[in-house]
Every structure is written in structure tokens, then in C-alpha cells.
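Lecture notes, unit on protein representations.

Consider one protein chain, 159 amino acids long.
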Amino acid sequence: MSKVILNLQLACDKANGLPEKIDFIRWLQGALLLFRDDYESEVTIRLVNKKEIHKLNITYCGKNRPTNVLSFKFESPLKEINFPFLGDLVICRQIVESEAQKQKKKIKAHWAHIVIHGSLHLLGYNHLLEKEAIVMESLEKKIMQKLGYPDPYLKDKNF
């Protein structure tokens, strides 16, 4: 049976206007179902402000700026045991909302894209090289389409 266990932590200024927990679960499932239809996975999503994500980005990525999402993949010390915990996503609400507005995207579609993007990082995908970015963007588009959202890489479209 397929199951996503979500630990949703709110560490941002206000909770109103955020997607519902069921939305986050649906977006996580969208990414996971692309790879297998029988799974149990646990993910923590922490919604933070710019100050917190900036500090985390400096500490863990060496980048002195805030970002929209950081992914922390769980690495089991016991390789022979299959843990359901995938890892943590830390998402900056202010940046997600600002990006959606600047890019003229519907806020819910942009939230979905950010969660899917972060989930793919937890599953081992990256975009450091152009070849990797092409693969990852292709997967993001496919998942977004399956969930009924438009291509997140279309420029200046109001969706």
C-alpha cells in the first residue's frame, strides 16, 4: 500500500494562506508515484522565513543568500535496513510567494513545483550539470502534468 507520512512544521510568520497539509501530501505522492506505486515514505516539510533559510543555506550549502527550498536527504548509517524516511524539505514561504507573483504563476501551482523539485532532490536527482538539469526538469514537468498543473518552466504565463 502506498503511503506518505508528512511531518509539517510551521516556522513562518503566519499560517493563513498556506496550502493544506493534504496538498503537500498529494505533491509528494506525485513525485514518489513516478518511481514506484508501492511505497511508504516519511518526509518533514518545514516552512520558514527568509532569515532561517538564509542561515541554513550558508551553513549547509555555503551560499550567502536565501533560497526557495533546501533538501536534506536522509542517509541511513545502516545500509542493509530500508528506512521509510526520505528526508527534510525546508521551504521559504516568502520566496515561494514572491517568485509566483514575479513569474505570474498561480501560487498553488508554484507551491506544487517547489515541493516536487525538493522531493526529486530527496530521491537523488540534482541539477548541478546541464545534463542533470534537463533530466530533472523533464521529471518535474511530467509530475506537474500528472497532477493537473502546467509546465513550470513556461515563461510569463498566467497559470
